[in-house]
Amino acid sequence: MPVYHSGKLSKTGRPDYNYPLRPMAKDLTVPFAPRNLMVTSPYIIGMADVRWDNPKIIPENNGLTVLGANVYRCTDNPYNTYEKLNASPIGSFYYRDQTQETLVENEDATPSLTYGGKPDGKWIITTRNKPIIREGTNGQISNRVEDVRLFIDDGDGSFVETPAYAVHGSTGQVQLINKFTFNYQVQQIIPPRLPQPPNGRVQITYRYLKHAVISYLNQRIYYKVTTVAEDPNNPGQRIETPLDEVSAVSMFDIEPVDWVWREAIRRNRWILDQGGERVKVFIRRWMGEKCTNYDEAYGQTHHDCPVCYGTNFVGGFDGPFDIIIAPPEAEKAIELLDMGLHIRYDWATWTTDFPLLNERDVVVRQNNERYIVGPINYQGQRGAIFQQHFTIAPLDEDDIRYKIPITGGETQVPESSDIYREGLKSPASPVINAKPEIPESKIIRGRTVTFENISW
User: Fold this and answer.
1) Nearest to 219 by CA among 97, 106, 350, 93
2) DSSP string of 203-255?
3) Distances (CA, A) of 35 to 53, 58, 274, 309, 336
4) Is residue 428 domain-resident?
5) CB half-sphere exposure, 99, CA atoms < 13 A
6) Are 232 and 133 found together in one domain?
7) Residues 234, 130: one domain?
8) Count of CB atoms situated within 10 Å of the CB of 137
9) When comparing pLDDT for 408 and 448, which is higher?
10) What is the domain range of residue 365?
C-alpha cells in the first residue's frame, strides 16, 4: 500500500486524503506537516488562533526528533509569498496571530527634518516606523495630532512639548507649527517653536503598526504550518516540511471537510469541467505598498491610476489565476445613461471552493471581456465551504482594469498559473482536440478540454 498524506493539494485545490505523495519506504529527509490544521477566532478583533495536531504522532514522522512547528501567513492570495510568524519552532499546538501596536518614545526625528527656505515654508519630520496608528483600534491609521507628542528644542538646550500642526499616518510625516498662534491659556499670540539648525532638535512619541491582523469583511488571510525536526544525516541541522506540501487554511474554513463532502466538491468540479466556462480571475489587493498616486486628502488614488488600477496598492491585483465558472444565466440589455449607452449584463454564476473570491475581483473571459465580481455567497455545511455563488457585471472597455496585463510581469503581476500548481498547459487555454482517424482538415476544433466528450 502506498503512503497517503492529507497535505497534498488535489485537483480541487483542497486537501486530498487519497492522493499518493510519498513512496512505501519511510522518507526521513522531510517531515510530514501537522494534520487537522484549523484557524478560528478568539472573539477578539484583530486576532486569529491557529491550531493543529501533534506532528509527533504521525506514523511517517517516527524516527525523527521533532522540534516543533513553524507558522506562515499570507494575505489576499493563497499563492502569494508566505512570511514566517514565529522566531523559533513552536513546541505547543497553538499560535495566536494578533495585531501588534508598538509604542515608540522620544524618537530622535532631527535627521529627517525638512523645511522650506521661506518663512512660511513647511517644517516636516518623518518617523522611522510607519504607519502611525490610534491606540487600541486594531491598526487604524491616525491622522490626528492627538496621537503624537512632539518635544522641540529650539537651540536653548531644553525640550518643550509642542503640538503638531498635521499628521499623515500612512507615510509617517508630521508637520510642525511654523506660524504665530494664539494661546488661550495666557491669552497671547506666541511665536512658533521650531528646531532651528544647527542646535535645534526634535523628538516624537507615537504608536505604529508592527504586525497586522486586520479584520476586514473582505480580508483573506491564509495560514500554513510546517513540522521542524533535526536532520538525522547532518547533526545540528534542521529539516522542515516544504510549504508546497502544506494546504493553505483560512478563517473561512470553520470546520474540516469530511469524506462525504469532499466527494460533493469533486462532483461539483466534474460538473464545471463538463459544462462550465474557463476564465481567468485577478484577485484584488487589500493590503500592500501604498500607491505613489495615493492622495492623503481624499483617502484614495484616482480611478484610472496605471500603477494600482484604482485599488490604492502598487500592482493592484494578483494573478491571473485560472478557474471554471458556471455558464451565464442572464439577459443582456442596452441602457441609455447620462454618460451614453451602457450594457447591463448581471451574470449569476458559481464556482468551486478554492481560491476564495471577493468583491471587486476581476474575471476575464477568453474573448477578453472583463467583469467585476459582486457579493459572494459561500455555500457549505456546518461552516465548510463547497461552492461560491456570486454575480459578475461587465466593465466598460475604457475602464482602467482592461489594462491589467494578462501575460504578467509588466507591473508586478505574476505569470498565469493554474490551481493544480503544475507546469502543464492551463485548463483555461484553448484546446485543439486530435483524432487519429479524422483528417486534420475536417476535424472539429473546440475551445475546452472536454469538447470531444460532446462531439464524438
Assistant:
1) 97
2) EEEEEEEEE-----TT--EEEEEEEEEE-TTSTT-EEE--GGGS--EETT--S
3) 6, 8, 33, 40, 56
4) no
5) 21
6) no
7) no
8) 16
9) 448
10) 259-403
Find, among 284, 328, 326, the residue nearest to 308 by Cα: 284
Residue, of 375 and 261, whose pLDDT is higher: 375
Residue 408 lies in a domain: no
- What would the grid cell of residue 198 be? 544647527
Instruction: Give pLDDT tens digits for 45-98.
Output: 778 889 898 898 888 788 788 899 999 998 887 877 888 988 889 888 888 888
- 62 and 135 share a domain? no
9 & 139 share domain: no
Q: At 435, which amino acid appears?
A: K
Residue 80 maps to which CATH number? 2.60.40.10
Would 439 be classed as within a structural domain?
A: no
Sign of CA dihedral 157, 159, 160, 162: positive
Residues 370-386 have pLDDT tens digits of: 999 988 888 877 777 78
Q: CA dist 292 to 142, 208, 392, Å? A: 19, 21, 29
CATH number at residue 160: 2.60.40
Instruction: Please name the amino acid found at residue 351.
Output: T
Domain count, the chain: 3
For residue 387, give Cα distances in angstroms to 84, 201, 405.
30, 60, 28
- Residue 414, C-alpha cell as written in the block: 505574476
Tell which phi-psi region holds residue 182, choosing left (phi > 0), alpha (psi between -120 and 50) or beta: beta
- pLDDT tens-digit readout, 317-372: 887 887 888 887 777 778 787 777 777 778 889 998 778 888 889 998 878 889 99
391 in the same domain as 320: yes
Q: What pTM does this model have?
A: 0.64
